[in-house]
Amino acid sequence: MDNQNSNFIKDIMIKDLESGKHETIMTRFPPEPNGYLHIGHAKSIILNFGLADDFSGTTNLRFDDTNPAKEDIEFVNSIKEDVKWLGFEWDNLFFASDYFDEMYNRAVLLIKKGLAYVDDLSADEIREYRGTLTEPGKNSPYRDRSIEENLDLFQRMRNGEFGNGEKVLRAKIDMASPNINLRDPVIYRIAHVTHHNTGDKWCIYPMYAFAHPLEDAIEGVTHSICTIEFEDQRPFYNWVVEQCEMKNQPQQIEFGRLNLTNTVMSKRKLKQLVEEGFVDGWDDPRMPTISGMRRRGFTPESIRTFVRETAVTKNNATVDFEMLEHFVREDLKLKAPRTMGIINPLKVVITNYPEGQIELLDAEINPENPEMGMRKIPFSREIYIEQDDFMENPPKKYFRLFPGNEVRLKHAYFIKCEEVVKDADGNVVELRCTYDPETKSGTGFTGRKVKGTIHWVEATHAVPAEFRLYEPLILDASEENEEGTFLDHVNPNSLQVFEGFVEPNMKESRPHDKFQFFRHGYFNVDPKHTTVDKLVFNRIVSLKSSFKL
Ligand code: ATP
Ligand code: MG
């Protein structure tokens, strides 16, 4: 009973089991296959699967595929993969389209009960007739068609006798209802579109608001968990279940959406970023999609822990992206091997080190997890350091390399900068240093201290590698921004690519291997760009954080 921290939905379930209203809990995760899953969906997945699991109940993965124009099998497959990767197994896999026959029959039942009618008004007219929050709507002139005429017209809609938009089927409830969702909502529309599951069998498709409660009821879902914007739909949800005479009566429960700072989460906007070429596909490591985060290097554990730590409430909440970063650091701290990599190389020649000599130095694989053991790293007369770790004219309190200064090379020796070599344009292209053999790491040298420790990679054995560093894709764009304008906030520096070097023992790294590069942060071997000849590392997150839980 502890996948999910205690929350109001869990309390409802406990009560329903205690009172005998339900013997077991059944939930479902109901994505529409019109895009890839994002971190917001992870919240819904973890709630649905986690809660059912806490009570040894069941969870269905159900594709809400009632809008064939926007849906695609590519999305179905990616969603399945992502749910599994997050660590969840569905008890049943269903498609809303499996129920099209039953939905049609329930719509016919409504017509027979005088609770649904075929309307000839156009979409615009229906909107006009609907009224506003302050004014009631008015009845369609077609509202009082006879049951026989409605049955005949609905049959003919199904037979394909009408074009798209020519007619709709509407529930007959109350055009004056204070809840706009109850002003005769459309429940079936005509769409001559091939469906990824049912092909050309149907040219009429149920509307989401009608289909969804039926899907839940058909499956016997006990608690239908959805996001807060559906709260006003609940009366219609209950109306459908009741008037369609469904045996099971699921309870709709709404919770607040999860949003992240500097992150757009709507599938429509994510799709726009993909289609307009701002990113390299749905799985671009800058995307908040599950597949993007996987490629970036986030672990399922870190996403699960993060989501569980965000509250389940009735309000939409925006959570600091740094909280997610905190949890991936926590997860990788003991798991990821430590290593050294040079992102922006500067050659250093150690002039007093014997030419041709290679020495193997010992280094811990992870000082916080000694069980991971030791590794050997070569050292020789030529190494690379970071360009950033040298300054010719340093400010005060700069403790890294500058002419005449001495620093420690991590796991190796002290070196002192003796000479700066420049090219014809005056750029620093090489440093000439000396080392002190007495200062070898691990020998307990105490003769003198240096203030800076920098990392390095031995030059003749170094493995070339590409480093991809990321910043937020969107700056200052909350979900509240107006239509389209979020594209004005795309960060031009969201991806920076560097060609550098890593330790030779990393040559055999495989896609999705994760490392902590000394001083640079956690990185993941990119599965898309890495080849046998070239390692590509995505920075998951840097080491520093201002975030406090
Ligand atoms: P989007 O608005 O991003 O397009 P959606 O709600 O249209 O998402 P669906 O495929 O319909 O996407 O969502 C499947 C489930 O995931 C729904 O129950 C939905 O409420 C939930 N969900 C989607 N986004 C979030 C979010 N940001 N936080 C929590 N749950 C979410
Ligand atoms: Mg949706």
UniProtKB/TrEMBL annotation:
<dbReference type="InterPro" id="IPR000924">
    <property type="entry name" value="Glu/Gln-tRNA-synth"/>
</dbReference>
<comment type="subunit">
    <text>Monomer.</text>
</comment>
<dbReference type="Pfam" id="PF03950">
    <property type="entry name" value="tRNA-synt_1c_C"/>
</dbReference>
<dbReference type="InterPro" id="IPR049437">
    <property type="entry name" value="tRNA-synt_1c_C2"/>
</dbReference>
<feature type="domain" description="Glutamyl/glutaminyl-tRNA synthetase class Ib anti-codon binding">
    <location>
        <begin position="336"/>
        <end position="436"/>
    </location>
</feature>
<keyword id="KW-0436">Ligase</keyword>
<dbReference type="GO" id="GO:0006424">
    <property type="term" value="P:glutamyl-tRNA aminoacylation"/>
</dbReference>
<feature type="binding site">
    <location>
        <position position="208"/>
    </location>
    <ligand>
        <name>L-glutamine</name>
    </ligand>
</feature>
<feature type="binding site">
    <location>
        <begin position="265"/>
        <end position="267"/>
    </location>
    <ligand>
        <name>ATP</name>
    </ligand>
</feature>
<keyword id="KW-0067">ATP-binding</keyword>
<feature type="short sequence motif" description="'HIGH' region">
    <location>
        <begin position="31"/>
        <end position="41"/>
    </location>
</feature>
<keyword id="KW-0030">Aminoacyl-tRNA synthetase</keyword>
<dbReference type="InterPro" id="IPR020058">
    <property type="entry name" value="Glu/Gln-tRNA-synth_Ib_cat-dom"/>
</dbReference>
<feature type="binding site">
    <location>
        <begin position="257"/>
        <end position="258"/>
    </location>
    <ligand>
        <name>ATP</name>
    </ligand>
</feature>
<keyword id="KW-0963">Cytoplasm</keyword>
<dbReference type="GO" id="GO:0005829">
    <property type="term" value="C:cytosol"/>
</dbReference>
<dbReference type="GO" id="GO:0006425">
    <property type="term" value="P:glutaminyl-tRNA aminoacylation"/>
</dbReference>
<feature type="binding site">
    <location>
        <begin position="32"/>
        <end position="34"/>
    </location>
    <ligand>
        <name>ATP</name>
    </ligand>
</feature>
<keyword id="KW-0648">Protein biosynthesis</keyword>
<dbReference type="InterPro" id="IPR050132">
    <property type="entry name" value="Gln/Glu-tRNA_Ligase"/>
</dbReference>
<dbReference type="InterPro" id="IPR020059">
    <property type="entry name" value="Glu/Gln-tRNA-synth_Ib_codon-bd"/>
</dbReference>
<keyword id="KW-0547">Nucleotide-binding</keyword>
<feature type="binding site">
    <location>
        <begin position="38"/>
        <end position="44"/>
    </location>
    <ligand>
        <name>ATP</name>
    </ligand>
</feature>
<feature type="binding site">
    <location>
        <position position="64"/>
    </location>
    <ligand>
        <name>L-glutamine</name>
    </ligand>
</feature>
<feature type="domain" description="tRNA synthetases class I (E and Q) anti-codon binding">
    <location>
        <begin position="453"/>
        <end position="526"/>
    </location>
</feature>
<dbReference type="InterPro" id="IPR011035">
    <property type="entry name" value="Ribosomal_bL25/Gln-tRNA_synth"/>
</dbReference>
<feature type="domain" description="Glutamyl/glutaminyl-tRNA synthetase class Ib catalytic">
    <location>
        <begin position="25"/>
        <end position="333"/>
    </location>
</feature>
<dbReference type="GO" id="GO:0005524">
    <property type="term" value="F:ATP binding"/>
</dbReference>
<dbReference type="InterPro" id="IPR004514">
    <property type="entry name" value="Gln-tRNA-synth"/>
</dbReference>
<dbReference type="InterPro" id="IPR001412">
    <property type="entry name" value="aa-tRNA-synth_I_CS"/>
</dbReference>
<comment type="similarity">
    <text>Belongs to the class-I aminoacyl-tRNA synthetase family.</text>
</comment>
<dbReference type="Pfam" id="PF00749">
    <property type="entry name" value="tRNA-synt_1c"/>
</dbReference>
<protein>
    <recommendedName>
        <fullName>Glutamine--tRNA ligase</fullName>
        <ecNumber>6.1.1.18</ecNumber>
    </recommendedName>
</protein>
<dbReference type="InterPro" id="IPR014729">
    <property type="entry name" value="Rossmann-like_a/b/a_fold"/>
</dbReference>
<feature type="short sequence motif" description="'KMSKS' region">
    <location>
        <begin position="264"/>
        <end position="268"/>
    </location>
</feature>
<dbReference type="InterPro" id="IPR020056">
    <property type="entry name" value="Rbsml_bL25/Gln-tRNA_synth_N"/>
</dbReference>
<dbReference type="InterPro" id="IPR022861">
    <property type="entry name" value="Gln_tRNA_ligase_bac"/>
</dbReference>
<dbReference type="InterPro" id="IPR020061">
    <property type="entry name" value="Glu_tRNA_lig_a-bdl"/>
</dbReference>
<dbReference type="GO" id="GO:0004819">
    <property type="term" value="F:glutamine-tRNA ligase activity"/>
</dbReference>
<feature type="binding site">
    <location>
        <position position="227"/>
    </location>
    <ligand>
        <name>ATP</name>
    </ligand>
</feature>
<dbReference type="Pfam" id="PF20974">
    <property type="entry name" value="tRNA-synt_1c_C2"/>
</dbReference>
